[in-house]
Amino acid sequence: MAYADPQTVFFTYQLLAAVQAEKKHQQFTSGIEGFSKDQLNKAETAEKNPLPGTDAIAAEKKEVEMRTGIEQYNKENMKHTDTQVKQVLPDKDTIEQERRNSLNE
């Protein structure tokens, strides 16, 4: 029994694979070309993502205008103010005295 040349066997398999791929492609294209539109059913489509209403557009426009006003605000128009502390925290002596009073009671 004589063995085939490995290069010939490889070429034969490549050729066979190419022929099979071509047959599949021809079957695919013939299926598309021979398809009848009469087999299709009528379908009613509904818009699932409608455009926003006028209220939503107006609200978004108002928000954009507000943000733009904040971003472009002129800080030069602001007046300087001094912060006044209205609640004074106790110092160390007062805290120590209150601690002693609470322990004595």
Provide a compact summary of the structure.
With 105 residues, the protein is mainly alpha-helical.
Written overview of the protein:
The chain has 105 residues and is mostly helical. Helix content is 56%, strand content 0%. The longest helix has 28 residues, at 6-33. The protein starts with 5 loop residues before the first helix and ends with a helix. 0% of the residues are buried.
Q: Radius of gyration over alpha carbons?
A: 43 Å
The 3D shape can be described as elongated
Uncertain ranges: none
| Helix segment tally | 3
Number of strands: 0
Q: What would you call the structural class? A: mainly alpha
Biggest sheet overview? none
**In what range is the share of β-strand residues?**
under 5%
Order of helices and strands: HHH
Features:
0% strand; 3 helices; mainly alpha
What topology does this entry show?
Blueprint: H1 6-33, H2 54-71, H3 92-104
